[in-house]
Amino acid sequence: MYIHWPYCTRICPYCDFNVYKSRSPDPALWRHALQSSLKAHHAHWPNLRLASIFFGGGTPSLMPPGLVQDVIDTATGLWPAAPGRLEINLEANPGSAERARFADFAAAGVNRLSLGVQALDDAALALLGRDHSAAEALAALDTARACFARVSADLIYARPDQTPAAWAAELDAMIALGVDHLSLYQLTIEPGTAFAAKAARGNLRPPDAERTADLYALTQARTAAAGLPAYEISNHAAPAAESRHNRLYWQGDWYAGIGPGAHGRLPARAQIDGADGAVTTGDADHAGGLDGARRAAAVALATLAHRRPQAWLDAATGGTTPWAATGIAEAEPLDAVARGEEMVMLGLRLAEGLDLDALARRLGPAAGRLLASPALARAVAAGLIERRGRRLVVPADKRALTDAIATRLLAG
Q1: What pLDDT, on the 0 to 100 scale, is given for residue 24?
Q2: Which of 26, 92, 162, 386 is deepest in the core (most CB within 10 A)?
């Protein structure tokens, strides 16, 4: 389950997420809306098991800890937890106000914190539009590790004028702190962001492709040597410290997206409880041109919630049917081929590769058709993909090309 909190105190110039400057949101209203959306999702998908909850954003560490606890309590009261410890992850900024809430978040049930450090250099943090210093980030890491069983730190590299030596020193400094999970993202210039406007004016020049490739290779070598190998293209962890939520996502599992602009991938009810597809709730409002409730019963869905916070709040709190109260604005049918293509694109990002047995269980005959293409034979012959037992794996030295390899494979 993904919970989207859309508010930030400021919008970072590289960010293209569905975020808005904080306008002192009403906790009582958001509590009502989030609980209503959860209950409405449960009305349509009651027989799933809950494996993880991820609070993302935006800046969910701006949420009142009591609101976080209420969301956790509602979700865990509706769906039974899957075997193994339920992972509850919250993204946080390292500012002093958020840091003061860490213990309260832990008491609310959060057991993993993802800290947006982004850089250990004050000049770089200023360039990235961050409102914390490197010293504050280090203090926040200390506080987080005292409060949570698992802590992950995010860093952005391939920044303008960043040299391999400078990045190596920064990465080594982070590794030396003993964090057991690192999310290391290359800076990308996304359309519509402040950085895109600067780049268009010639005022921002990230490293070229060759330098970026060098930085990526350096990142893989340094983290692997430190016992933090990549388990996904941008995510590195010590053994048993991987993010369960992230792994389930890349393995193609189902997930619910709650909150403004959140995406979801949800199964047909017939797939989870043997239902015949009949709907008796009387729902008749439409989502994405479809009869949402009937689609929820009959087919798997790719869902997108209302993007604007007020539109989502209005739907979740004022919906006249259980479907409207989900907050879902668009619900498109996800057939076996489309689902399989998503699983291929995501699964190849993992170091362990794409699980062919899981693909077959999910898709049936469609899995065979996807994997019988001449493009796969060509990719294997070219050394772009390896067959390792019942898995397809992109070799480590080709992993930076994974998206292009998957696209070529699916093109046939």
Answers
A1: 82
A2: 92
The answer to whether 51 and 82 are in contact (CB under 8 A) is yes
- Sign for the CA dihedral angle at 8, 12, 13, 14 comes to negative
Nearest by Cα to 378 from 332, 333, 409, 336? 409
Name the helix (H) or strand (E) containing 196: helix 194-200
Local confidence band at 279 (pLDDT 50, 70, 90 cut-offs): very low
CA distances from 73 to 31, 52, 67, 79, 148 (A): 12, 13, 10, 10, 19
Centre a 10 Å sphere on the Cβ of residue 205 and count the other Cβ atoms it contains: 11
- pLDDT, residue 290, reads 43
Q: What phi and psi, each to the nearest 5 degrees, are found at residue 384? A: -85, -25
Q: What is the DSSP letter of 268?
A: -
pLDDT band at 291 (very low <50, low <70, confident <90, very high): low
Say how far apart CA 259 and CA 327 lie, in whole Å. 7
Phi-psi region of 261 (alpha: psi -120 to 50; beta: other; left: phi over 0): left
Contact status, residue 32 vs residue 312, Cβ threshold 8 Å: no
Over residues 71-93, the mean pLDDT reads 94
Q: Running DSSP on this structure, what letter comes out for residue 325? A: G
> Which residues 6+ apart lie within 8 Å of 290 measured at CB?
331, 332, 333
d(CA 121, CA 369): 50
Strand-by-strand arrangement of the 2-5 sheet: 230-232, 235-237, 181-186, 150-157, 112-118, 87-92, 52-57, 2-5, 257-258
Sign of the C-alpha dihedral computed for residues 213, 184, 179 and 84 taken in this order: negative
- Which of these, 394, 410, 395, lies nearest to 347 by C-alpha position? 394
As given in the structure block, the two tokens for residue 226 are 């430190």
Query: What are the tens digits of pLDDT across the range 219-267?
Result: 999 999 999 999 999 999 999 999 999 999 999 999 999 999 999 999 9
First to last CA, the chain: 33
Measured CA to CA, the distance from residue 177 to residue 174 in angstroms comes to: 5
Is-contact 38 74, C-beta < 8 A?
yes
Residue 48: which of 255, 190, 187 has the closest Cα?
Answer: 255
As given in the structure block, the two tokens for residue 236 are 């590195």
- Which stretches does DSSP call E strand in 138-242? 150-157, 181-186, 230-232, 235-237
| Helices H / strands E in the chain, number of each | 18, 19
